[in-house]
Amino acid sequence: MEKKERSFDDGSDMPFKPTAILNYKNIDNELAGVAVDFWQLTWEKEGATIDLKTKLMLSMTNAMGAYRHRQATRELIKAYSLGMIVGEMDEIFELIAWNQGIGTFSSEFGTSPEFLAYQYIKNQEKRNTPFGDIMTGLMQKFGDSNPLVNVKN
Q1: At what angle do helices 86-100 and 52-65 cross, to 10 degrees?
Q2: pTM for the model
Q3: How many other CB atoms are there within 10 angstroms of residue 57's CB atom?
Q4: DSSP state of 47
Q5: pLDDT at 12 over 80
Q6: What is the rounded (10 degree) CA torsion for 86, 87, 89, 91?
């Protein structure tokens, strides 16, 4: 399997910066500072016990349970960029169907952007598409240009 490493246009090793935090600046600079500090504590904690990929997977499933499809999509793509595999995604979506129910899954998750991104990844991997090409396609289809995924004001 191809090693999943990529530098994105902004030079980072993972897509999607926490741009939603910028919305707090529109309310109050101090609030924005608190949000940034909290984000750094949560996501850039030195000596963290839980690795970043696992944190993203947990954040994704939490977002899905709260019907925050925009966040779930972003977390799925970030986790995939750090090595989450399709088998893990299969089991996550299976758990969502179990915990949320078949009707809810069919109505709310089967048409969600995170499920579509997962299906895109799964289909591209079946075609043996290189990881970098999959990531490029994901960002074109489910990046900030997609209004169901964008968090900027």
Answers
A1: 30
A2: 0.83
A3: 22
A4: T
A5: no
A6: 160
Q: What is the pLDDT of residues 138-149, one digit of tens each?
A: 999 998 788 777
Distance CA 113, CA 10 (A): 24
Residue from 127, 67, 24, 91 nearest 79 by CA: 91
The amino acid that residue 17 corresponds to is K
Q: Give the count of beta carbons closer than 10 Å to the beta carbon of residue 87.
A: 9
Which two tokens mark 65? 């349970």
Q: Tell how far CA 13 is from the center of its chain.
A: 14
Give the CA dihedral 28, 152, 38, 92, nearest 10 degrees: 150
User: How many Å apart are CA 128 and CA 39, to the nearest integer?
Assistant: 36
DSSP 95-116: HHHHHH-HHHIIIIITTSHHHH
Two tokens, residue 90: 């299969």
